[in-house]
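ok so i was messing around last nite and threw this chain in just to see what happens. nothing serious, just curious
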Amino acid sequence: MLASLTAARWVTAAPGADPQDATGHHINSAGRRALFTDTQWKALQEATAEGRLPASTPWPAVQAMQGAGFAEYRDAEGQAQPHDGGGRNSAYLTALGLRARTAPPDATDNG
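result:
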């Protein structure tokens, strides 16, 4: 698995890391981008500073991001909800979604 991720250039090894040990690697910017469809990536990039996804984001994209832990629905009080509540709840990025969107490349990022 690590060899495949490295060949795809989706992970970067820390300096001096054992090439066979995944703990010495991290997902780089190309790897983060590869996690999402074009629609999901667009929604991630267009979310507000608080993480609210654009209302125009198709529900299948939100549902897939929710299933992977990148998004959640919230009610008017900001409480997480299992679904959109018939349009009453809004889609937001979770802490993981915010990290995926904003994680800057570092000096070792070859993505």
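not much to say yet. Helices lie at 2-7, 29-34, 38-46, 59-67, 95-102.
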